[in-house]
Amino acid sequence: MPFDLQHYPIDERLIPWGLSLAEVEQRLAPRQWLPAYGGWPNLHGACRSVLGLAAVELNLRAPARHKPVMQVSYELAPPPGYHGKQPVDAAYWVQPLTQLLGPPTKNTPLPGQNPVSSNVVHSVIWQWPTLRVSLSVFGGIRRTESGLAAAGLFLDWQDELTAARPFYEAAQAQAADLNARAEGIEQLQLFELQQPQSGFYMPDYGSAEPHAARQATQWRQSQRALYREGLCETPTLVQNRLQSQQVALWAVPGQEAWAVSNCQDTIVLTPPNLPAVELLTLRPAKGAGAMLLSIGSLHLQDAYSSPTLTHLAAALEQQVGVAVSRAEDSDC
């Protein structure tokens, strides 16, 4: 099967990048799927081959069912007659993939890894501006629901600006409306945390500059729109009054709504459709502990000794009518 940067293969079919998880499921109907994994919404099922390599399973992952598939992974079958006493030589997959994809960007044996199935003993990467193909050779055989696997192949779509475009445009429109309304704010309730709060971005630890999106405004905002629901840019007036360790709670002028903001991210709370809110106390164990407050897609963190997030949670209950769930655990 030919390879191109605009599609990913599912057995004999090429699926264009950019389709949502729900659209892919509909396009492949009546294909049978296995129970989904945890984490991101996903489609998990049997697979015979990928890019000319024998496979046993695949998994498609997206930030939400209505958002684009961002990663497709394949469990690769071991060579015929393989008895599993040693990891498979990476060349078994690297040679045919190199003929198809060209020379890899990185080809890294990991000799220090214990050769057991849960470990990766060899990593190979092919990189383009919008796509990364990664091969991970396992230290042993992994049993999947569809057969035995000796390696994994991962296709990561990295064109986040394209993937996020419709969600970015909607978030920008919301931010513009909120920015205009914020001019009429009468009062900001400021909550002083012990730790600075950063805006959301998605680091890429497989790249040479994993935190590049943090400093690129459109990229950061696109990631936020793609990977989070309900977050938008904090209005300029609020940004100008907030320091990095402060969070603001404020009534949205002209609406029966409230907003919670840090310096970059804001979530709007509109009764009765309120997001889940949880206050998690992590008691010191292996570390110093922490206080975590999740307000839908807005995640705040502070020192274990700080009462600020507890006070903010109480204000959300009393002033907004949010039901706050509380939990405790140890940071181990």
- Poorly predicted segments: none
pLDDT average, as an integer? Answer: 95
The rounded distance between the terminal residues' Cα atoms is 47 Å
Radius of gyration, taken over Cα atoms and rounded to an integer in Å: 23 Å
Which overall shape is indicated by the principal axes computed on the Cα atoms? elongated
Number of strands: 19
Sketch the topology as an H/E string, one letter per element: EEHEEEEHEEEEHEHEHEEEEEEHE
Chain oligomer state: single chain
Main sheet summary: 8 strands, antiparallel
Number of helices: 6
Strand content: 25-35%
| Global structural class | alpha+beta
Percent helix among the residues? 10-25%
Description:
With 332 residues, the chain is α+β, with helices and mostly antiparallel strands. Helices cover 21% and strands 34% of the residues. The strands form four sheets. Strands 3, 4, 5, 6, 7, 8, 9 and 10 form an eight-stranded antiparallel β-sheet that branches. Strands 11-13-14-15-12 form a five-stranded antiparallel β-sheet, with helices on both faces. A hairpin with a 2-residue loop joins strand 9 (131-144) and strand 10. The N and C termini lie far apart (47 Å). The model has no long low-confidence stretch (mean pLDDT 95).
Short description:
This protein is α+β, with helices and mostly antiparallel strands. The protein contains 6 helices and 19 strands.
Features:
single chain, 332 residues, alpha+beta, eight-stranded antiparallel β-sheet, five-stranded antiparallel β-sheet, 19 strands
Q: Would you spell out the secondary-structure blueprint of this structure?
A:
Layout: E1 7-10, E2 13-16, H1 21-28, E3 42-46, E4 49-50, E5 53-61, E6 71-76, H2 91-101, E7 106-109, E8 120-127, E9 131-144, E10 147-157, H3 160-181, E11 189-192, H4 217-227, E12 231-233, H5 236-241, E13 246-251, E14 258-261, E15 265-269, E16 277-283, E17 290-295, E18 298-302, H6 308-320, E19 324-330
Parallel strand pairs: 16-19
Antiparallel strand pairs: 1-2, 3-5, 4-5, 5-6, 6-10, 7-8, 8-9, 9-10, 11-13, 12-15, 13-14, 14-15, 16-17, 17-18
Helix pairs in contact: 3-4
